[in-house]
Amino acid sequence: METQEPGAPSSDGLAEGGHGRELRKNPEAGVITGVCAGLGEFTRVDPVVWRTAFAITGLASGTGLWLYGGAWLLMRSSEGGPAMAEQLLDRRFAPESVLTLLGLALASATALSLIGGISGGTLMLATPLILGGLTAHSRGIDLKQALRDLPAQLKAKEPPPVPPKPEPAPTYYNPAQPWAAAPSGPVDLSVIAHQSAQDTAEDSGEENEEEEEDQDGEHTATERARISAQRAREQARETTERQRERKKARRRERGILLFTPVFWVIVVAGIIFGVSGEHPLSALLGPVFLGSVVTVIGAALLAGTWFGDRRGLVSLGALVTLLAIATTSTDLTSLRLGSEHWRPAAPAEVREYQLDGGQAELDLTAMELEPGERVDVSADVRFGEVKVVVPETARVDVHATAAFGSVLIGDERWSGGNLDVRRAMEPGSTGGAPEDAEREQPDEGGAEPAELNVRLMSHSADMEVRRVAR
Fold this sequence. Notes:
Strand content: 15-25%
Oligomer: single chain
Largest sheet: 7 strands, mixed
């Protein structure tokens, strides 16, 4: 959270010792109550950054909600009226003390989250705290002095501000219209004088226009149109040049855009991490790489205190922090995505097959099955598609479950939600029958056929079981 050194002049150039700029809500530019818009206007930080900070800290046991509520109580209304806390305590709060209280509350919540060890909530709270401290330091704010001045500011018993009273609108009465009655209320003579001067200027303007028309009467309409178009082009060219010069001046004043070199450093580091490791995704989503990226962004923000343009670095740091939080709470490196083809050559090679997302094909036709042998096979494809190919000489018991999707066994199909299908495919048949149906008995003297027990599971996928001849 950003604070401002008490007693220092504000950006408006107000004298030392005055209240400076007021910290007000801005409902017109806000999303909910205008708290973030008001904080952004006062601190000259994009309101999106404040909303992101409250959202991130809100994931840590609702800390962001308490901070947002405290800011709402301490901030004044858009008209400059007293804040809710100022009315309840009957005293005035300086904007600097409000920001210091928010930063102190966030630091206290971060310290409490350390009880029991560092967790994901600690990272959610510490990241906005560190970025806010770096931003305040880069603005030349003495955080230690702000903490020392906080008790004195809170003990001050200066009464809260009084809401401004609406000023009466001036009443205009034109004495040149004797038929118009003067309205009730005060008559603003300055308005009458201004209107009279405006009427005189309009009359003289009309006379000048008539004289110019007489002088230009010698020019044809085509010549006047050509001159007007040329003047418009010259004005547009001058406006473009002025805008270009202003942009160049702003770029020279801000210095080099630090976002560009930081971005390319991250890209090069990502390539090095991805190539050097056996699992590129695990390396890029690991704590070492993401921690290095956050360190580089923090160093660039600190360097921007003395030189360079820091635009975009805070947003980039927030995105990397959110990614780091996601990898901490969920092991994204263990996800298996893509296309898989499983083809066990023997029953001993059969295992539990898993795929988090993508397409998978399980081919069971390469196994040499003994008569009467039973093999259990399970495949879990959470999202995507899975196809199972079975030999025509084996009996296949299929049990397929899916939260949503479709199941195709032979020439029978089931679609919808909460699917739980059990079917049996007898040797030589391409269709399925209920699992509890009477099994076909082998011929007299014939051996019991091999049996495949296929278990398919999915959250949302298309599952298919079909026979092929070997």
